Task: structure prediction
Amino acid sequence: MNVIIRTATEADQPTITSIIRAAHINPMDLKWQHFVVAEDAGQIVGTGQIKTHRDGSHELASIAVIPERQGEGIATQIINALLADQSGTLYLMCQRSLEPFYQRFGFSPVTSDQMPPYFRRITKLAGVLSPVSQAVRGEGLNISVMKRKL
Ligand SMILES: CC(C)(COP(=O)(O)OP(=O)(O)OC[C@H]1O[C@@H](n2cnc3c(N)ncnc32)[C@H](O)[C@@H]1OP(=O)(O)O)[C@@H](O)C(=O)NCCC(=O)NCCS
Result:
């Protein structure tokens, strides 16, 4: 494996979009200018970005690795590269099952009253949209918001 992490270019936009769509994660705000990509022998195998929201909060987002290359530490490399450039507080949204993974990078779960307005709004919306499917599955809200403070 010889994966490099580099800033994205305009030519990477279609690949970034298709990797995020295939991973079934948030398909909004996928501007290449905010991304880094993991590349191996000319192929993009993973993506990640820092989003800036209108309330001024920053989000580690769009972390995805193509299925055939998962489990090799590529997401870890992407996250470390993105974190190296950050000096302030960062948030992220993930499935609850990924909390232990993000805790490795210094993130901890926050409650609704500790969230910036953007994250409070999104989680409230998710709570409104998903109660029926959750009731069927007998689960609580499956989304976690996490924060990393320097
Ligand atoms: C989550 C994801 C980015 C991890 O990428 P990766 O390159 O395989 O990650 P790494 O190899 O750096 O680290 C692997 C760790 O991820 C964690 N992990 C991966 N998938 C997981 C899952 N479904 N549930 C819980 N933990 C998971 C494990 O802690 C694993 O650690 P281990 O190898 O010690 O078991 C990748 O599985 C992916 O693209 N998933 C689909 C998109 C997605 O859910 N993105 C996260 C958005 S918040």
About this structure: The chain has one domain: 4-148. DSSP finds five helices and seven strands in the chain. Residues 41 and 87 are 31 Å apart (CA to CA). The pocket of coenzyme A is lined by residues 23, 25, 63-65, 70-76, 94, 97-98, 100-101 (CB under 6 Å).
